[in-house]
Amino acid sequence: MALVLFMFVNKITTPRYLSESELLVNGFYQFSEPKEFSDFKIMTSEDVVLSKQDLIGKWTLIYFGYTRCPAECPVAMSLIKGLYSTLNSKGLDMKNKQMLLVTIDPENDSAEQVDSYAKAFNKTFIGARGERPALLSIATQFNVMVVEPPKINTFNNMVHLENHSNNILLINPDSKYAGFFRPPFDAEKFLLIYQSLVAER
């Protein structure tokens, strides 16, 4: 009986490895070889500098958003929040996993505001801000559009930015760009893909 129970628990907790084509169909574009990217320096709250070195040894999800985002950012952040809640409920080790929110609106977001916004979803999430030149340098390497766009649909201090890239990036423990999740997002697929990728290491 104990053996049967172990096999059942193992089956539902052990992630299934997905092929490259399965990953793509389910919303993740995986590079054939993880991509190198240059070092960067952005600020978190309390003037703490965050660099490429801080990504080594961890699976890092990076999302480019902003605190006054009315729709896309809360959806993406809630998705990642749900992922972390599920992983925690399964008792999985979270020490080698982190989430980084980088603001695309540094003219209006302070490092403290971004970090507070990120931590409202999960206290372990990190929010960071870079000056526009540093932001452009980082985003260009990840093919993320962050050129300051016109502001429209202002309501209740919520601001919609045109041309807002909405991908969620995945950086592997070697601090290399492994690929990205593409919208529309689905919580079950997101969990399936993430567990498959992380379990491969």
TrEMBL record:
It holds the Pfam family SCO1-SenC. Belongs to the SCO1/2 family. This is Thioredoxin domain-containing protein. It comes from marine metagenome.
